[in-house]
Each structure stands twice: as structure tokens, then as C-alpha cells.
Amino acid sequence: MNIPDSAPSNNRAAVARRHWSLDDIPWRLIRRDAVAQTEGFFYLVAAASLMESATDLYTENLIEYFADDEEVTSWLEKYWLPEELQHGEALRRYVQIAWPEFDWEPARRRFVEEFRPFCDTALELTRSLEMASRCVVETGTASYYRTLSRASPDPVLAMLTRRISEDEVRHYKHFYRYFRKYRDVEAPRRAAILPALWRRLKMTGGDDSFIVLKHVHAAHHPGELFDIGVYRRVRRECRQLVRNHFPHQMSVQMLLKPLGLGPRTQRLTLPVATAVARRVVP
After folding, report:
1. pTM for the model
2. Domain 32-280 = CATH 1.10.620.20
């Protein structure tokens, strides 16, 4: 997967012209029979819809951190946040059509109430490292939706999650471009960039995953216990459902890019890192 180092100068206008809307999704063609009876797909889509709907909870801290950089804050406010919230709205609509018995709004309110304190997480000490960290987040979401698109037995869900994945890859390119901008000023060593990537990577599947699945489960199975055992079972079922569809090489390429490895090192590292990823993820 080729990920350009920079975006065209007129990128904002181009994005505004071509970005998809909810009206572009053929909701009436959703094949409920293909997904409704598979709990794994329910958890994967419902959890994603709640997480995306809460993007605004942690955006404020990010905007404040880059407050004196109008280029960054303008993109975050005008493009990144609205597109992320649109992802949540689109996934919500899919959930309400495919699983109409799921009471989405009360589940969202309860999730947000518990999740809000976790959104005040510490940012990296420098802006270049924070942008590198954001690249990890976008790698995770792009990979998640690419996986879901490949695994989906419903063409509408496949289309929707493919569009979201493409958005996340584009968001990655922006964060990577801003990373390079601050890297040129701050000159962080690779020995500092790698731990920043690892710190963010370790957060994947942490408290936020447990919290969101807990509230999806509570609304789906009212009154039933949700503990670490149930959490692991649900995660296991979801992994088994999509395990053969994860884009390992794409993910590794995106994760390695902020390290600025030379062409020869990249050629040597990529196959090994991809092979490790295939054993570890999902």
C-alpha cells in the first residue's frame, strides 16, 4: 500500500467536494439475514458506532494542544471531527436497521457517562510525538474497518466500512504530514518515536474496549453479568469471525512509516514485522 508523504495543496477543497454522505449508502438493500444472527458482527458494528459517536469527547484536548497552529486545528475542527462523527451516525443507522431491537441511544448515553473520564488521557510531551501517536490510532481504525469490510457477508456493510476505512487512511496521511512538519522543527530521535508508537499501541483493546463492549452487552442482554470472562469470550468470538481478513501488511507499513526507515532497512523489516503481526493480530 503506497502512502504518500504529503497531500496536494488544494486537498481541503478536494476532500469537501468528494466526501461521501449517508445518502450514498443504499440502506434499503441491507441483508439483515446475512448478519443479524451473528453476534460477532453485532458487537463489532455496535461497539464501533458508540466509539465513533464519542469522538468529540477527546477532540477538545487535541485541539487545545495545537491551539496556536491554525492549519492543524482548522483541519481537526472542519474535517476530521465531522467525518468521525459521521462514521458514528452511519454505523448507528446500520445497527438500528440490522438489529432494531437494540436500544442504541440509551446505550450511547450510559457509555459516554462512563467513558468521559478516560478521554482526558495525557498527550505526548512533544507535538511531533503526539502526531506519531495519532498515526497509530488511525492505523488501528483503518485496519479495523478494512477487516470488517472484507469479512462482511452483507454488501452494504462492506461498502460502508470500506468508505470509513478509506477516510481513516486519509486521516492518517494528514497526521503523518503534520508529524513530519513538527519532526523537522523538533528533530526527535527514532529512539523517542518508537516508544511513543508503542505507548499508543498498548492502549489498543484496553479500558475503552472493555467499557464499550460492556454497554453494548448490557443493552443487548439486560440483567446479565458482564465481567472479564464475558469480555474475553466476546473478543474471542469477534476475532474468530474476522481473523482471516486483517490487513497485516497495510497495518505494519503504516506503523513503521513515522520511524523513517531507509529503503534497505524497510525492505528487510517489513516481511519480518508482517510475519510477527500475523501471529499476534488478531
Report:
1. 0.90
2. yes
